[in-house]
Amino acid sequence: MHYEVVADGLRFPEGPIAMPDGSILLVEIERGTVSRVDPEGKVSVVADLGGGPNGLAIGPDGRCYVCNNGGMEWHERDGMLIPGHQPAGYRGGSIQAVDLDTGQVETLYTHCEGEPLKAPNDLVFDRHGGMWFTDNGKRRARTEDVGAVYYAKADGSFISEQVYPCSHANGVGLSPDEQWLYVAETMVGRVWRYNLPEPGRAAVPAGLLNGESLLYGAPGFDLYDSLAVEECGNVCVATLARGGITVIDPQGNLVEHVPLPDPGTTNICFGGSDRRTAYVTLGCMGQLVKLKWPRPGLALNFSPE
């Protein structure tokens, strides 16, 4: 599929948000910033957060909410930037909020019921103004954390763990009717779905080896990163290793795989007046690209018009 490079030289981009003026907000994880790419491809820093800013979403108060994974080691290989293990200066993960006008940063959450957040990764707001977010966990030379999925209020007053364990929890999204929560699990290439009987509560089936919530499992060596949902309910998952976007319908059937040249394809969002322009972050290559998408993306809650 033909694509156009919007910006190059980014330091491992993720978390794109299409803005009304044609610009794209995103994070540069290695750089530690929330950055803005204007329609001509010029990059400017909105806020310097440090650590490892990862997923982004606009909240009910108009601020940009950030999953900060606390930072990573970084390696250059064959002209590509590769994330690594937990760095020596790691101080924990957090949920932050950025005022887009001033660049002021507020840290909202670092713990849940006394348990530190390890590496918050991606987030999505429901129509009630609460956020679902994943914690991917940190990896070290011989050990790694177990991931989880949380629900929290945007004002910093409430957080609860809703899905645990969820190893390598990464992308997160909501079905158009908000009856289902989608979660991508990176290292095994799976997408899970959990019924939401009420706002902020996920129904997790009982049983140690229960596959009831599995929506789709990759048949080969695909690793899943962040995701977005189409207006029709399809789930579009950024696919590592093979590189590209994998599209799965709400019944768990593969719709298509859209190949892209970066094995570090990290995320996708939809923009344009009809939401049929896909903006995709190519992390290892440091690019933001755009391409025509065959179906419109879902309008996100609180997205600027």
Plain-language structure description:
- There is one protein chain.
- It is built from no helices and 29 strands.
- The chain is mainly beta.
- It has strands at residues 4-7, 13-18, 24-28, 33-37, 43-48, 53-58, 64-68, 74-77, 80-83, 94-98, 105-109, 111-112, 115-116, 120-125, 130-135, 148-153, 159-163, 169-174, 180-185, 190-198, 201-203, 214-217, 223-229, 235-240, 244-248, 254-259, 265-271, 277-282, 287-292.
- It is globular and about 50 Å long.
- The relative contact order is 0.16.
- It has a domain at 22-228: 6 Propeller (Neuraminidase).
CATH superfamily descriptor of the domain at 22-228: TolB, C-terminal domain
Radius of gyration: 17 Å
Largest sheet: 5 strands, antiparallel
Work out the helicity level. under 10%
The proportion of strand residues reads over 45%
Mean pLDDT across the residues is: 97
Write the layout of secondary structure elements.
Layout: E1 4-7, E2 13-18, E3 24-28, E4 33-37, E5 43-48, E6 53-58, E7 64-68, E8 74-77, E9 80-83, E10 94-98, E11 105-109, E12 111-112, E13 115-116, E14 120-125, E15 130-135, E16 148-153, E17 159-163, E18 169-174, E19 180-185, E20 190-198, E21 201-203, E22 214-217, E23 223-229, E24 235-240, E25 244-248, E26 254-259, E27 265-271, E28 277-282, E29 287-292
Antiparallel strand pairs: 1-29, 2-3, 3-4, 4-5, 6-7, 7-10, 8-9, 10-11, 12-13, 14-15, 15-16, 16-17, 18-19, 19-20, 20-21, 20-22, 23-24, 24-25, 25-26, 27-28, 28-29
